[in-house]
Recover the amino acids of this structure.
């Protein structure tokens, strides 16, 4: 069974943001959301919408599959 892992996905997003030396405000601006939404993503309380995942994948030059962590 494949399951979405919110905690690992949150950690992955935080790593990508940090690795690319981006500010939360910048990520929020590019995704068209408030900064608290980004904090919710990186704390595992919510996940980005598909629109935001597309923007994030472009921002980090990766595939959406690389952003979302699943347990198999």
């Amino acid at each position: 069974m494949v399951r979405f892992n919110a905690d690992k996905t949150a950690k992955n997003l935080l790593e990508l943001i940090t690795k690319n030396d981006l500010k939360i405000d910048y990520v929020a601006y590019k995704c068209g959301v408030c900064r608290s939404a980004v904090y919710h993503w990186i704390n595992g309380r919510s996940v980005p919408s598909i629109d935001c995942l597309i923007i994030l994948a472009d921002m980090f030059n990766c595939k959406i599959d690389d952003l979302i962590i699943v347990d198999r």
User: Anything to note?
Assistant: The chain is about 60% helix and 5% strand. The chain has one domain: 3-71. The domain at 3-71 is CATH 1.10.260.40 (434 Repressor (Amino-terminal Domain)). Helices lie at 6-19, 24-31, 35-42, 50-59, 64-67.
